[in-house]
Structure formats: C-alpha cells, structure tokens
Specification:
single chain, 410 residues, alpha/beta, Rossmann fold, seven-stranded mixed sheet, four-stranded mixed sheet, globular, disordered N terminus
Amino acid sequence: MYKFSLVFLSALALLLGSISTSFSKVEGDTIILGAAVSLTGKYSTNGKHTKNGYELAVKRINGRAAKVQVGGKDYKFKIIYYDDESNAGRAAQLAEKLIKQDGVKYMLGPYSSGLTKAIAPVTEENKIPMVEANGASRSLFTKGYKYLFAVLSAANQYLEVAIDLAVEKNGGKPVNIAMAFEQDAFSQDVRLGIVDAAKRTGSKIIIDDKLPKELNDMAATLAKVKATKPDVLVVSGHSKGALTAIRQISEMKVDVPMLAMTHCDASKLAKQHGEKSEYALCAAQWHKTLSYRDKYFGSGKKFDKDFTAEYGYAPPYQAAESAAALLVWKDAFERANSFDTEKVRDALAATDMQTFYGNIKFSDAGQNIAKPMVLFQVICDGDKCENKVVAPTEWASAELIHPAPAWSER
C-alpha cells in the first residue's frame, strides 16, 4: 500500500503539474506568449518592425535581475512566432494553432487592423487575453471584446489633427479637402475620422478617391488635385502608399498647401525620398522626442538609440508600440501575481501606467484612452531630412511650416 501510495501521489503530482503548465503555458521559469506576425507578404515591412519591437522588449525585460516577478519567483518571456503571410485567413488559423496546439494562453497582436480583426474573435472565443499594438481600427472596440487590449490610439484619430491645423492656418475658416485611401480596414477608419473632422469644422471634401490595390499609381487623383487646388491632401495606404504619393507628387510637381499621410516613418520616407518628402505631415502614434519615460527603456530617445544599435535602423512607431505591449504584459502579470488567465485579464483591464511610448490606460472596450496622436513634419537642412513634431503643440519640437512652398520655389 505504501509503494502504491507513492506511485499514485507521484502520478497525481505529474498530472497536476501537466494541468498547471497547460493552463498557464509557463514552462519552468519561462512565460510563453504567442504571436502571428507578417514576415512575408504585403505587410512584411511593418511585420518586421513589430517583431523587432517585441524582441527588443523581451531582451530588455529578460536581461534585468528582476524579470517578471510572480509568486515570489522570477520568470522570463519567450514568444512563439508564426508567419501569417499578411493574410487574414492565415492569421486566424495560426491563432487557433497557437491556442489549441501550442497551448498558448497569452497573445500578442499581429500587424494591421485587418489581421487583428481576424484574430480577435479566436482569442475572445477561447478567453485568451491579447495585448495588441498595431490594430487601430475603431471597430475593434465596438464588438464588446473583453480579452482584447490595445496600447495604440484608434485609427479614426490619425489625421483629424491635420484638418484642425489646416482650418487654424486658414484663419479658422473651413477648408477644401482631397483624400485618397486604400480599401483596408485601417485606412477606411482613418477616412471616417477625416469625414467627421470635415463635418465638425464645416469643411468640404472635394476629392474622395480609392487607391488602387497595387498602390503604385496615384496619377489620376493627383491630376484632380492639380485641377481643383484643395487646401489639404490626406493619404493613407500604408508604407507603399506613402512612398507612391511622394514619388508621384514630386514627379508631377503637384502643389498643395498641406499634405498629410500615414506610415511615413515605417516607410522611411525622409530617407527614401529626401528633399522630395519635405513639408509632408505624418501621423504617428509615437515620436522619440516625446517626454514619456519608464524604468526599462528610459526615454524615447534612449529607446531609439538602443533599437538602432540592435537592428541597424531607427525605430518607427510600430516598433515602439510593440515594445510597449511587452511592458504591459509584465506589469499585468506582476499585479495579478498569478498565471490564471482570468486574473491576468482583470489586471490588464486595470492597467494605468506610463511607458517610454506613452501613457496606457484601457477603457472598458480595451482601447487606450490615455495617449493622443502626434503629427510630425519632414524638415530638411541640405541633404539631411528629419521628422520634427509639430502637434500636439505642448510636445512640439518645431513650428509648422505652412503653406508648403510651391515646387517652383524649392
């Protein structure tokens, strides 16, 4: 009976240990997170930025003496990655795989609103908390999700400030707006924000074009801009759309007082096009000159320095917000003091913290309500072009140059 009891207790211990590990997806001293990220396909550039941001934060947290402290013990992070190939269907499949086959209980988001929309129903159905950094579609926050938490500002906020600036520079009077948007979830939410801003300011939308799927030709839209002379042109087509816009605006010598776009830094616009990109206004979730701080990366400038040293290029905001997602996870685990997914979810919901990226506090819908968008302008000094924050004004590092000089004067 004594031997039988020992065998039974040993087997029971192994079973309970297996259940605990399966429940929490903690292997030894390692907390396992899962992520489907675009390493190939249309979003591969920003997918790389996303992964690099995740990885730098993991290295920073794991490199500290006190890593992630739960139950009086130190744990480190590890991320299981799969390539979603920039495909929504594939992203959903991989979320299922991470949860059902790999046993992941804590998720990081993919790149883009479309792919986040594909994954969110999967994590929600399985009651798996997900901290996402690159899905800004406002529709993500209208579904009643309880396990989705986004560190970034919603997409409809991206370029509203540009319309407000244009109206301000027009003496407070309404302006004429031209816009061209890709037909993806993110860009369409940016468009809705412009529509709302136009109504709010009494401005008129005189061009409302759809960007072609290939994102390599805006000539038709730009011809209309030359003919109608709007006060502001707004464009959202991810990295490729930003590069195409600047290339063709410079080739066609399109004069517009204000040009505002998304994804300028992700596409390395100033580096790719230099003086051709000067005076463009670019919406961003983050900029290195902002004054936010934390004890892991310090300031935005320190994060910029560390990221550049690690990966050989300056971090776009996609990398910064992705790194911030790991800081949120660390904070939540430590406040929950548990690996129970429900307790961790509740800790995430109660998040109220500052990171180098910005303040983070979630609404009941999982939206970050503590951080505004920023708008920077490409300013050149000879061959050197830099991004200077011009809005919000309390964090501005440069004064807005408006109107943009005509091409004949450059």
